[in-house]
Amino acid sequence: MPRVAKELSALEVKRMQHPGKGGNITIAVGGVSGLLMQLTPNGGRSWLLRASVGGKRREIGLGGFPDVTLAQARDRARDTKDKIRSGIDPVEERKATRAALETAQRRGLTFADAVDRCLAAKLDAFKNAKHRDQWRNTLNTYAMPDLRNMLVDEITVQDVLRVLEPIWRTKTETAKRLRGRIEAVLSWATVAGHRTGDNPARWAGNLKELLPAPDRIAKQDNQPAIQIDDAPRWFAAIRDRDGMGARALEFAALTAARSQEVRGAQWDEIDLDAGVWTIPAGRMKKEREHRVALSNETMALLAALPRFPDNTLVFPAQRGGQLSDMTLSATMKRIHKADVADGGLGFVDRVSKRPAVPHGLRSTFRDWVAERTHFPGDMAEVALAHKVSNAVEAAYRRGDMIEKRRAMMAAWADYLTGTSKAGAKVVRIV
Predict the structure, then answer these.
(1) Taking every annotated instance into account, which residue ranges of this chain make up the domain Core-binding (CB) (predicted)?
(2) Are strands 270-271 and 56-64 parallel, antiparallel or unpaired?
């Protein structure tokens, strides 16, 4: 049998040093077969994946260290090996992508460049920086994967549909905003002389004939959720993962908060002494301040997180800004795939059978309250920051009521971590 490399820790990787003699050396870090740390005599460190592609031995670069962490390098190595197994040569794919981009840049304006120029021209039209960031983030998340390198004068109705259709029924409000923003970018490109003809993202007399009207689509956004019985197993899997994306997902599960609330969480919003996370109105969907009771498990998670003197975010991205929604989604997908690869069924929604997504964690929490506890449903709705009757909301917003919600969140943490007694019912607190 081939020798299996010892799985090194992040600290062991950080301490690696070149011996000072000879040329570049490589050291296997384990976790993914063929993953190596390359050390150069002048102190450079980078990641390589040694793999066989179509009968050829390849060393594929995965980025430099520490910009690419050990956890990220392992994820990139797994993704690259998945491509190789699918018959894709990652090196040739990278060359082709670069060549296509260079060709497009020489010929005309790409959609990505049009977004930058359009935003620069419209700076005064935005009320604040947050709105501008939301505008860009929506395009980055949903439009860029398909349209980024396309020339604006070559984008057609079919290209816009390819972007919108996957989320038109499941994330209708987001899809509506996305369509309008694509239309605005292409409208700017037309006026600026980079394209001619009708706007392929226009609604009236265009996409209206190809997509169902948003108001006819069910308002309930049923995001694929982890099944209640699978939640502890999923939670154990997320805790075994390294990386800020995994920690953000762990926090989201424990607090039942929305992805954007977690990704934008600031240290000054969290009172560690009181065990309360106060999310300001400006960051809430309903634009009202929301308090979250933090369980002991959640407090322990926060205590273990690194803090950066020049960054106030609780879960900063590698380069200092907010984590993207795609980072959390990608982590969920990897956990699902890993479980399937180990012979499991993965983590899929009970009804739709689709792999669970981050927003579905809130549904799992709500189902757990309804089916496995005696906590009041209205209390769960307040914890989720859902709209409830004014009388109920007024009651649960009184100072002592957050302690009752704290008991519920503690019981939820116990269930996720497997520390609650099997089959035990949670006593209703009144």
Answers:
(1) 109-190
(2) unpaired
CA distance 145 to 206: 23
Give the whole-angstrom CA distance, residue 315 versus residue 265. 7
d(CA 225, CA 231): 10
Which candidate, 35, 39, 37, 40, places its Cα nearest to that of 76?
Answer: 35
Structural contact between residues 138 and 119, judged by C-beta atoms closer than 8 angstroms = no
pTM: 0.51
Tokens found for residue 245? 């994306």
d(C-alpha 385, C-alpha 362), whole Å: 11
Mean pLDDT of 328-335: 94
- In terms of Cβ atoms closer than 10 Å to its own Cβ (0-12, 13-18, 19+), residue 101 is middle
Question: What is the rounded CA–CA span in Å between residue 24 and residue 78?
Answer: 24
Whether residue 427 is predicted with pLDDT greater than 50 in this model: the reply is no
Pair of tokens at residue 50: 């040694």
Instruction: Determine the Cα–Cα distance for residues 407 and 403; give it in Å rounded to an integer.
Output: 6
pLDDT at 307: 92
Give the domains, in start order, of the chain with CATH numbers.
10-98 (3.30.160.390), 108-216 (1.10.150.130), 228-417 (1.10.443.10)
Q: How far apart are CA 167 and CA 320, in angstroms?
A: 29
Dist. CA 364–CA 230, nearest whole Å: 10
Return the structure tokens found at 183: 């239309």
Q: Tens of pLDDT along 37-72?
A: 999 988 899 999 998 888 888 889 999 999 999 999
